Amino acid sequence: MRTAPILNDILKELERAEKLHPDWPTDTIHQMSIVSEECGEATQAANNHVYHDQPIHNVRKELIHTGAMVVRMLKNLNHE
Fold first, then answer.
1. What is the pTM of this model?
2. How far apart are CA 26 and CA 22, in angstroms?
3. Cβ atoms of residues 41 and 58 within 8 Å
4. What angle do CA 60, 50, 4 make, to 5 degrees?
5. Where are the domains of the chain?
6. From CA 4, how far away is CA 37, in angstroms rounded?
7. How wide is the angle at C-alpha 1 spanned by C-alphas 55 and 34, nearest 5°?
8. pLDDT per residue of the chain (80 residues) written in tens, 0 to 9
9. How far is CA 79 from CA 1, 29, 60, in A?
């Protein structure tokens, strides 16, 4: 898969998440906790794919969520 469609999906997810959850923590540790939570969900989806024959699209979905939260954190680092 090419990079542009992946980045587009991350940006769409970021926009959706910002509308759904407009409040974002102002401190770095709470921001990173959100990123870590999404990363954990991606890890769980990968484990489920490998060990429980769950579809790979679940891994992709969780990676998109993780990427969106990484971008959101980067956008808000200067708020501290």
1. 0.93
2. 12
3. no
4. 20
5. 3-11+26-79
6. 25
7. 60
8. 799 999 999 999 999 999 999 999 999 999 999 999 999 999 999 999 999 999 999 999 999 999 999 999 999 997 55
9. 34, 13, 30
